[in-house]
């Protein structure tokens, strides 16, 4: 195996999702409900093989497309917020925050295992999904992966993973 490294940056039209959310600032302060057209980028650093490639990154693009599609057109709620309590009652899910009880239709909501719906947490969530699902391990000799999530120009959350030194 070669020790020569290269980096591939992926930023495709299908690597996006539209979602509603609100950011929680403290136990009693949050944004109003609103939405964004989020974009996702990935940067993969790995070893170049004998064929002059890091690997076939079509599979990694497909996984990123699928992850974005899975978040598209939902209202995102954080399942691990210390300031928000979620309760399901029939077809509704209630978000209790600071004395407010906010109702949502269960089919419109996606509860993510994160603390807040921010670009920082979304970047970490997507990176963790790539690593936890094992998709990253099937893609050549990867040394590092960076995932970026943007909610608009000038606002980007970044999460990074590096293979442990052996």
What does this structure look like?
17% of the residues lie in helices and 46% in strands. It has helices spanning 58-71, 119-132, and strands at 5-10, 16-21, 24-26, 29-30, 34-47, 74-78, 85-89, 92-97, 100-105, 109-112, 142-152, 155-162. It has 166 residues and is α+β, with helices and mostly antiparallel strands. Strands 1, 2, 5, 6, 10, 11 and 12 form a seven-stranded mixed β-sheet that branches. A three-stranded antiparallel β-sheet has the order 7-8-9, with no helix packed on it. Strands 3-4 form a two-stranded antiparallel ribbon. The protein has two helices and twelve strands; from the N terminus they run βββββαβββββαββ. It starts with a strand and ends with a strand. The model has no long low-confidence stretch (mean pLDDT 91). A hairpin with a 2-residue loop joins strand 7 and strand 8 (92-97). The chain has a single domain, classed as 6-pyruvoyl tetrahydropterin synthase/QueD (Tetrahydropterin Synthase, Chain A, 2-Layer Sandwich). The radius of gyration is 18 Å and the shape is elongated.
């Amino acid at each position: 195996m070669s020790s020569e490294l290269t980096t591939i940056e992926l930023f495709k039209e299908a690597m996006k999702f539209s979602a509603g959310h609100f950011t929680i600032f403290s136990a009693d302060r949050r944004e109003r409900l609103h939405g964004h057209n989020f974009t996702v980028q990935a940067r993969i650093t790995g070893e170049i093989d004998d064929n002059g490639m890091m690997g076939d990154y079509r599979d990694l693009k497909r996984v990123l497309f699928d992850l974005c599609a899975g978040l598209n057109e939902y209202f995102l709620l954080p399942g691990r917020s210390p300031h928000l309590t979620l309760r399901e009652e029939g077809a509704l899910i209630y978000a209790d925050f600071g004395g407010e009880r906010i109702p949502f239709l269960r089919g419109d909501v996606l509860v993510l295992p994160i603390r807040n719906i921010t670009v920082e947490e979304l970047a970490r969530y997507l990176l963790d999904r790539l690593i936890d699902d094992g998709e990253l391990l099937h893609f050549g000799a990867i040394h590092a992966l960076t995932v970026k999530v943007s909610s608009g120009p000038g606002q980007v959350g970044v999460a990074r993973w590096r293979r442990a030194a052996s």
